[in-house]
Amino acid sequence: MKCVSLYNQGSHRWLAFGQDPAKPDAVIDTVQYVVCAQGGAMLLDPGGMEVFPPMLASITQEIAIEDVSGIFLSHQDPDVGSSLPLWRRVCNPETKIYVSALWTGFIAHFDREAVFTAIPDEGMEISLGSDVRLKLVPAHYLHSPGNFHVYDAKAKILFSGDMGAALVPPGAASGMFVENFASHIPYMEGFHRRWMSSNRARDAWVAAVSKLDIEMMAPQHGLVFKGDDVPRFLEWISGLDLGSGVAAMAR
Fold it and tell me: Is the dihedral of CA 154, 68, 32, 107 positive or negative?
């Protein structure tokens, strides 16, 4: 599994893990992120059970597993966190698990012994280690009714979950970053039209994240946006008509 450093300032780091050449074809490609700080590390959407072995092997080359102090799940999907019981076996027993209050009882079906820190609808802030604060940004209905993203003001990075996600064919990307926004649109468009259900929620999210100072936007699938491609994405998604699945019901 490939590991790319998105940000590196002393103990404060953002690491992206993905593009595993050994991944089974039937398993959708995902990107897992780790935020490191002095005295702690947070896993962001650590992935499904199928990616746990290569992810564990890759992360332990970068940090000590006992440094993981938090696990964040943006929503309930199996590709987000069905590996949770496996992570709890190897992480410190005091590691906190953050998830929307809507989903605690449902994610317990992955791991009935897990103890969750429930995120309220309006979001919250988390202190990571001694020097980093992460803001949990509401992203409800994009695509889950209980959904959050993670913003790091110091690194100027937004982990955006499924917003910005792309289904990039094998071999189509030479690295972990979007290199040509226009060429990247076909990998995103169908996904966003179908999986994002609400234009109203989209507008609220765009208004909220536009107020943040973002230099990188890191989705759970596909490639990372940086620099001018961040406002390009916000402009593009603002004009996209969402909820294409409704057409199948209007017959």
Answer: negative
Q: What tokens does 184 get?
A: 């990247």
Question: What is the β-pairing status of strands 68-72 and 40-44?
Answer: parallel
Number of domains within the chain? 1
- pLDDT tens string 203-221: 999 999 999 999 999 999 9
Query: Minimal CA–CA distance to 182: which of 219, 220, 228?
Result: 228
What's the rounded Cα separation, in Å, for the pair 190 and 167?
9
The range of the structural domain enclosing residue 136 comes to 2-248
Q: Distance between CA 211 and CA 192 in Å, rounded?
A: 22
pLDDT tens digits along 127-166: 998 889 999 999 999 999 999 999 999 999 999 999 999 9
Cα 52 to the center of its chain, rounded Å = 16
Contact 72, 150 (CB under 8 A): yes
- What is the CATH number for 186? 3.60.15.10
Closest CA to 153 of 183, 116, 126: 126
